[in-house]
Design goal:
Elements lengths: L1 E4 L4 E5 L3 E7 L5 E8 L5 H10 L35 E4 L9 E10 L15 E9 L4 E9 L5 E10 L5 E12 L7 E9 L2 E9 L3 E6 L9 E9 L9 E6 L5 E7 L5 E7 L6 E3 L4 E3 L3 E6 L2 H17 L2 H4 L6 E3 L1 H4 L5 H14 L3 E4 L29 H9 L3 E6 L3 E3 L3 H5 L18 E3 L5 H17 L4 E4 L21 H19 L4 E4 L9 H6 L2 E3 L8 H9 L8 E6 L12 H8 L3 E5 L7 H23 L1 E6 L6 E7 L5 E8 L10 E2 L9 E4 L4 E4 H6 L2 E2 L7 E9 L3
Parallel strand pairs: 21-22, 21-30, 22-23, 23-26, 26-27, 27-28, 28-29, 29-30
Antiparallel strand pairs: 1-2, 2-3, 3-4, 5-10, 6-7, 7-8, 8-9, 9-19, 9-20, 10-17, 10-18, 11-12, 11-14, 13-16, 14-15, 15-20, 16-17, 24-25, 31-32, 32-33, 33-38, 34-37, 35-36, 35-38
The structure holds alpha-D-galactopyranose.
């Protein structure tokens, strides 16, 4: 719902539970007014009077521009007295960059415009576009705001247009700028930081005067920092209090910043990373930035997460796939690494069939001359020496056993020891005369060049056309370092990283459209590209290369801050775990992997008879609860970063059933019985927890709780909760 009040030049944008208000002040600047609980349309005039005017520069005052420094602007600009960092910096031919963006017009339309060549929300109820114009140059900016009555997410992005004749260079082009309300609140910021095998760990720090900047400069969203930040007000907890989320639907290098001034105003903004960024706009050209999903919750971080989960499922992930039952996968990577042949794979496939697995995914090493990670990337044709008869015998074996077949690719990469590199050494990102920087012994293809993306599209398509392939695991195993393309002019090298990202989107879009029956899973050395941009193409993403039964609880907990459980690929792997060497019970690994798109990644032929029985039970359990994984509401109960437990539950939207998984990390001899409060149930319904023999009201289960089970180190529990029908 978007409401415009002509008298006050104000707008109220409202979704399910929030409102966001802005207005054009007397000087013509678009100013932020309110973001929080849903308010009524008639509240706008009062808000402007009481809260807006005091910060509104009076145009009669010749010093008015200086007041912009504390004005809660919806688009920060440089050189007119606002000393905070700008949202957009546009450099003219004479090198000047000062600007003053003022309101020109607005339009309210139904739906939302799709952004060509970039991930974006698939729908919205209404969009408000406010056009600002620079007083001193020919730059116009559209600020877009899209809302949906059924969602707690507000979508913002910007589009810059050069309406003049001379070239303008964008040196910064962020997607959004906003301000936090109420300077008396103590705010803190949550970010998801990590590394390979340890992705998305929530880190919370108080906001204070100065700038907090989280970013990736690696050419993709990265393991180290996710393009998401939540700002928590006062004592916001998991289940109560106010918080705000900012999630960039972008897979490239990004930045999100909060900036607190001495008078405690906080500006939050973000978008494509402006570090070494530049984008030339000739007369008549425009530049459109990635969308940001802003979210407000009055129900703590848990409420924020559930709102984001609904948002990603309903507005971003492919609607054809999002609620589709996910195949239970056996992936051969940790079973064989590069060392496999037909017989080894046949044995795994035969065993998988006996255990009830749906899909065999052949990972790295099937192509070119790839017997280790030093060669073959780019040569997307089968290694017939290794796989006698090509992929066909493997696929036939799957079919005979009733399994589908999936295949691993790393489309953006090239090995120096490959036919592709020998034919096109200039296709790799590097600069003549400078030794290229290698990561995992490989180089990255220059996806800013269309002919290279075309080549990869044709090469991957050929394999997909010639074979019966139902599933693709799309990997990416290194950072981008040189940020240079020989095909870009000297003064356009600042466009490199964003153009690379557009090349990745282009290939994803084309392959997914050309092969609508193939399910594409994302991956980047584990969960290095787990973001809202990638989720537009990949309904699920390999969450982490770390599948250890303990570490995974933390990775999945952190990932769930904003991404739905159904988007996390989670596999049971062997013990001792290949990343941590830890030994955890098979049952625990299965329980943790059931909170996501589940599967197996170990040598099934080496399992004991008892473990095989457990696989069958795990699969039967998963087929019982996978509807909840796809569509339920997640409640995080015991925080693995703060306690010796992990526990989460998923509740059906109609609250008739729920699924709980928990783990006890470390036994404690002095442990006294502790109570675990459940959440998300209907207070007035009666439920049973079969495994505990408990029957109680939702109210009792949520207020009093149930006892944590006593368990040895890394022991786990699974509970099925069902509503009793009278
Ligand atoms: C990455 C992925 C793994 C596996 C290997 C193969 O590390 O995250 O799952 O596919 O590459 O090289």
């Amino acid at each position: 719902m978007i409401y415009f009040d002509k008298l006050s030049d104000g707008f109220i944008l409202s979704g399910k539970n929030y409102s966001y208000a802005i207005f054009v002040n007397r000087a013509g600047y678009l100013q932020h007014l309110y973001y929080g609980k849903k308010i009524g349309e008639s509240d706008l005039a009062f808000l402007i009077k009481t809260q807006g005017e005091k910060l509104s520069p009076n145009p009669e005052d010749i010093n008015a521009d200086m007041l912009t420094d504390c004005m809660p602007s919806e688009c920060g600009f440089f050189g007119r007295g606002d000393f905070r960092s700008a949202t957009v910096i546009a450099e003219r031919e004479d090198g000047s960059v000062m600007s003053s963006f003022k309101y020109v017009k607005h339009a309210i339309s139904g739906g939302v415009a799709r952004i060509k060549g970039q991930p974006c929300v698939r729908k919205a109820d209404n969009t408000l576009t406010i056009t600002l114009k620079d007083d001193f140059s020919d730059i116009e900016i559209d600020l877009n705001y899209s809302v949906s009555d059924n969602s707690d997410v507000l979508i913002k992005n910007t589009e810059m247009r050069n309406t003049g004749k001379t070239c303008i260079k964008l040196k910064k082009a962020f997607s959004f700028c906003t301000n936090l309300p109420d300077i008396d609140k103590q705010y803190s910021a949550l970010r998801l930081a990590g590394s390979w095998a340890s992705e998305r760990r929530p880190v919370i720090t108080p906001l204070a005067e100065g700038t907090l900047r989280i970013e990736s400069t690696r050419g993709y969203s990265s393991h180290q920092m996710n393009p998401f930040m939540a700002i928590l007000a006062d004592s916001c907890t998991e289940n109560s209090g106010e918080c705000y989320g900012f999630n960039l639907l972008y897979s490239g290098s990004f930045a999100l910043t909060t900036e607190m001034t001495s008078d405690k105003n906080i500006r939050v903004q973000g978008g494509i990373n402006d570090y070494l960024f530049g984008w030339e706009l000739d007369g008549g050209e425009s530049f459109i930035t990635p969308q940001t999903a802003l979210c407000y919750s009055a129900e703590g971080l848990g409420g924020l997460s559930r709102a984001y989960h609904d948002f990603f499922r309903e507005y971003v992930i492919d609607p054809k796939r999002v609620y589709e039952r996910r195949p239970i996968v056996i992936n051969n990577w940790e079973a064989t690494y590069f060392n496999f042949d037909n017989e080894k794979l046949f044995a795994i496939i035969d065993e998988a069939a006996k255990l009830g697995i749906d899909m065999f995914v052949l990972d790295d090493g099937w192509f070119g001359k790839r017997n280790d990670d030093k060669s073959g990337l780019g040569d997307w044709f089968v290694n017939n020496k290794k796989l006698k008869g090509g992929l066909k015998p493997i696929i036939d074996r799957c079919k005979k056993n009733g399994l589908k077949f999936g295949l691993w690719f790393e489309p953006e990469m090239i090995s120096e020891d490959s036919d592709l590199y020998r034919a096109h050494p200039d296709w790799a990102i590097k600069k003549e005369g400078v030794e290229p920087c290698r990561g995992r012994n490989q180089l990255v293809l220059d996806f800013t060049r269309k002919e290279i993306v075309d080549y990869v599209f044709n090469a991957v398509s050929k394999v997909l056309k010639e074979n019966d392939i139902s599933y693709v695991k799309w990997d990416k195993n290194r950072d981008i370092t040189e940020n240079f393309s020989a095909s870009l002019l000297a003064d356009r090298q600042g466009e490199f990283l964003h153009r690379y990202t557009l090349g990745f989107y282009d290939l994803a879009e084309r392959l997914i459209s050309a092969f609508p029956d193939v399910f594409f899973e994302g991956c980047a050395g584990g969960g290095g590209r787990f973001d809202g941009g990638a989720l537009y193409y990949f309904p699920q993403i390999w969450t982490s290369d770390d599948t250890d039964g303990l570490e995974r609880t933390k990775i999945q907990w952190g990932t769930s801050m904003c991404y739905p459980v159904s988007a996390m690929s989670c596999h049971v792997s062997a013990c001792p775990n290949h990343q941590t060497q830890r030994i955890t019970p098979f049952k625990t690994r299965g329980a943790i992997a059931s909170f996501g798109a589940t599967g197996y990644e170990l040598d099934l032929t080496k399992l004991t008879a008892e473990e095989k029985e457990q696989v069958k039970e795990q699969i039967a359990n998963y087929k019982r609860i996978d509807g909840l994984v796809l569509n339920g509401d997640l409640f995080r109960l015991a925080n693995p970063f703060e306690t010796d437990y992990f526990c989460e539950m998923i509740v059906a939207k109609d609250k008739t059933e729920a699924y709980v998984v928990g783990e006890r990390f470390r036994g404690d001899p002095c442990d006294h019985d502790r109570l675990l409060k459940l959440n998300g149930l209907d207070e007035n319904k009666t439920y049973t927890i079969k495994e505990l023999g408990v029957t109680a009201s939702g109210k009792a289960l949520m207020s009093a709780g149930v006892y944590y089970p006593r368990l040895p180190d890394c022991g786990s529990w699974i509970w099925h909760i069902e509503k009793i029908t009278k």
